[in-house]
């Protein structure tokens, strides 16, 4: 549930911040007549994201065992790629995001109402599709689907409340630190999803070494314990991972954390 909550909170807050920038720009520009078009675009983006998540679930359920394992492995790989790109893109572009969105919306206002709706749709749809894909990949292998669903709904609700508070200036949070810490946690989640993808490829017979275990933590990491459930659900930590799973997990996690946590270069001002 916590992993799903984190996904909903992080992705939901990004989408909420995008919406708040668009709404604030229209309000300050005294173009509130375009607000219905913005909400229409946002509603279409949300509907598309829900439909995409339903399509992934429906497709996986209709496949036989081997094809289902391959499908889940491929979607897990795609989720890792997208979430990694999103984390590093947000780290680099967060400071200029508001200015960029306002510029795009100003251009859309000059074109017409349809352009405004399309611009809002595209701004939110990316976050929504990423959320659906990442959520689908993160809950593979879960024994209960209700808890992850509750978790992501609570995360999205929390994001909406925080976003509304920021818009109304009732909440003050350090967004840089927020996105840094949630970025670290999402990298850990992504490493677990990548580990699960390797396991699925091994289950499908695409990769060898399914029974070549790197270690056995069964004596200290009981699957029935609360901490075993938390670690398995959050980071996909299993008592008997294969050698390939551990190697791929470490090969992704270590470089990703080093690159993400290294200080950003600050461009020196041009000489007069």
From TrEMBL:
It comes from the Bacteria. The lineage of its organism: Bacteria, Bacillati, Actinomycetota, Actinomycetes, Streptosporangiales. The keyword Cell membrane does not apply. The chain crosses the membrane at residues 6-27, 39-61, 73-93, 105-125, 145-166, 178-198, 242-261. InterPro entries: FTR1/Fip1/EfeU (IPR004923). It is a multi-pass membrane protein. Keywords: Membrane, Transmembrane, Transmembrane helix. It is found in: Membrane. It comes from Nonomuraea monospora. Pfam families: FTR1. This is FTR1 family protein. Belongs to the oxidase-dependent Fe transporter (OFeT) (TC 9.A.10.1) family. NCBIfam families: EfeU.
């Amino acid at each position: 549930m916590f992993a799903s909550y984190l996904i909903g909170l992080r992705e939901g807050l990004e989408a909420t911040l995008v919406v708040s920038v668009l709404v604030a720009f229209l309000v300050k520009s005294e173009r509130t007549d375009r607000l219905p078009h913005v909400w229409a675009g946002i509603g279409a983006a949300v509907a598309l994201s829900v439909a995409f998540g339903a399509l992934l679930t429906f497709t996986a359920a209709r496949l036989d065992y081997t094809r289902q394992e391959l499908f889940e492995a491929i979607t897990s790989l795609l989720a890792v790629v997208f979430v990694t790109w999103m984390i590093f893109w947000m780290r680099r572009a967060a400071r200029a995001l508001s200015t960029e969105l306002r510029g795009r919306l100003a251009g859309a206002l000059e074109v017409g109402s349809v352009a405004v709706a399309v611009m809002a749709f595209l701004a939110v749809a990316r976050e929504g599709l990423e959320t659906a894909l990442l959520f689908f990949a993160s809950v593979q292998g879960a024994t209960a689907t209700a808890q992850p669903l509750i978790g992501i709904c609570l995360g999205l609700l929390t994001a909406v409340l925080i976003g509304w508070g920021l818009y109304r200036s009732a909440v003050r949070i350090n967004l840089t630190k927020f996105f840094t810490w949630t970025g670290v946690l999402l990298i850990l989640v992504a490493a677990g999803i990548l580990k699960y993808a390797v396991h699925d490829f091994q289950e499908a017979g695409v990769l060898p070494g399914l029974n070549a275990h790197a270690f056995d933590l069964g004596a200290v990491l009981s699957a029935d314990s609360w901490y075993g459930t938390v670690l398995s659900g959050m980071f996909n930590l299993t008592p008997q991972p294969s050698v390939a799973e551990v190697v791929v997990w470490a090969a992704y996690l270590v470089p990703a954390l080093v690159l993400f946590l290294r200080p950003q270069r600050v461009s020196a001002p041009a000489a007069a």
